[in-house]
């Protein structure tokens, strides 16, 4: 009996060790496969990215100076950027047939410009589908579930910058 208990314990320990070796400790932090030859076509030097951002900020400031009062901020509160988490992006890229994503500019009820993300196929056509089904989504206290009443979804709810940003660009 004692040998049988030791054998069961040893078997369970080996099985547990095997399972933990096969599963990354942080599965959501794994590397996403990349076709480097296709990605390199879109890479720009950080100096060019900084120049693009500065051009946008300067243009926004110039436009604001040409409009009466605080019109630009009240009618089109445009952020410097928005941050989306990897799970939102993964859900878009995991849509059947997705070859990329498109970012549309939107405007919410507070007048804030928001970015709306959709998957696109290889011909550049929006893919209208369910991105995250409710039965697969975790119910997190304090976090409102997806507001979509339609089975066709898009991603929004990025974190606006400012105020939530630690930009180094």
Description:
35% of the residues lie in helices and 13% in strands. Among the domains are: 45-75; 77-135 and 148-169, no CATH class. The strands form two sheets. Strands 1-4 form a two-stranded antiparallel sheet. Strands 2-3 form a two-stranded antiparallel ribbon. With 169 residues, the protein is an alpha+beta fold. The chain is globular. The termini are far apart. The longest helix has 21 residues, at 2-22. The chain has helices spanning 2-22, 36-39, 46-66, 71-75, 86-93, and strands at residues 81-83, 100-107, 113-120, 159-161.
Short summary:
The chain has 169 residues and is an alpha+beta fold. 35% of the residues lie in helices and 13% in strands. It is built from 5 helices and 4 strands; from the N terminus they run ααααβαβββ.
Across the major sheet, the strand order is: 1-4
Mean pLDDT over the full residue set? 76
Low-pLDDT windows of residues: 3-26, 139-143
Biggest β-sheet: count, sense, barrel?
Answer: 2 strands, antiparallel
Overall shape: it is globular
Question: Using DSSP, what is the number of strands?
Answer: 4
What descriptors fit this protein?
13% strand; globular
Secondary-structure topology with pairs:
Blueprint: H1 2-22, H2 36-39, H3 46-66, H4 71-75, E1 81-83, H5 86-93, E2 100-107, E3 113-120, E4 159-161
Antiparallel strand pairs: 1-4, 2-3
């Amino acid at each position: 009996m004692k040998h049988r208990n030791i054998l069961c314990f040893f078997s369970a320990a080996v099985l547990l060790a095997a399972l933990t070796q096969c599963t990354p400790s942080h599965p959501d932090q794994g590397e996403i496969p990349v076709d480097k030859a296709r990605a390199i076509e879109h890479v720009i030097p950080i100096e060019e990215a900084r120049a693009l951002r500065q051009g946008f900020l300067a243009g926004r400031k110039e436009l604001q100076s040409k409009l009466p009062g605080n019109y630009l901020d009240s009618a089109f509160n445009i952020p410097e950027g928005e941050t989306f988490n990897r799970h939102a992006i993964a859900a878009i890229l995991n849509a059947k047939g997705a070859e990329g994503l498109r970012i549309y500019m939107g405007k919410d009820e507070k007048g804030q410009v928001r970015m709306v993300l959709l998957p696109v196929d290889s011909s550049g056509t929006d893919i209208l589908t369910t991105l995250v089904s409710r039965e697969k989504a975790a119910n997190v206290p304090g976090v409102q579930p997806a507001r979509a009443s339609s089975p066709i979804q898009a991603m929004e709810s990025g974190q606006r910058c400012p105020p939530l940003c630690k930009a180094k660009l």
